[in-house]
Amino acid sequence: MSFFSEVEKTIEREFRKWTEKAFGRAESDELLMVHRGILEEIASQIQTVQRGRRIFPFNHLVIRLAAPDTARRAMFEAAFGAEHRLANEIGECLAGAGCDIPAGFTVDIETMENGQRSMDIQYENRSAPPIPMAKPGSARLTILRGKAGQESFLLDKPRINIGRLVELIDSRQRVVRRNDIVFEDGADEANASVSRGHAHIRWDEETHEYRICDDASEYGTRIFRDGRSIEVPSGGKRGERLHSGDEVYLGRACLRFEIS
Length: 260
Known about the structure:
Layout: H1 5-23, H2 25-43, E1 47-48, E2 54-55, E3 60-66, H3 70-81, H4 85-96, E4 106-112, E5 119-124, E6 139-145, E7 152-154, E8 159-163, E9 167-169, E10 175-178, E11 181-182, H5 189-192, E12 199-204, E13 209-214, E14 221-225, E15 228-232, E16 240-241, E17 247-250, E18 253-259
Parallel strand pairs: 3-4, 8-11
Antiparallel strand pairs: 1-2, 3-5, 6-7, 6-18, 8-12, 9-10, 12-13, 13-16, 14-15, 14-17, 17-18
């Protein structure tokens, strides 16, 4: 923990709290040891270059976890792979160490029945795909988690509202908002975390980019990109710029933003 002990301690506390609730105390202890081993090995790859600048010279990691038992492999996948949990934590640790996150940074989690080591990390550099230029009507949202009226939506208007109801009505029964992308009310747990008027995406004519704004939602809006999570300010008018390939989380619901 030489580079980012305080960051790691905070992450470990949250990881223990979550795994104890999900898997029980005994399993949490084992998962915490694996978790710590992964972060410590990755920390050993940080390099200090000119003027004390720290870099992480890889943009892709393949983390392989071996266990002969099917149930244990499933637990590893749930603990480390769900919602990019481990990738997000690695990104936080690298940022805490003062490293710039490499462009196109990604993490794959693989489990296997047998392996020379119970945990192995493969370090790679992959060519980042070119970033597509945005233009009006060129973007699409695809539902990854949650249930809506259809699987994908073309962003063909200057503003696209997203929420859990088709219409929002005030105390005088006047329609104050209509949602273009509607997560079905009561459909599942992910949908329940989407507010009635959760967020909107707008096309910025001046900068030629799509931006997402959180409309003071209860469970928040965040973007997962290049191994890190970016919080969208609650109620902010400017919002955050969207990049092709971003995963957008509305509470626990998730959509992929892509530019064609």
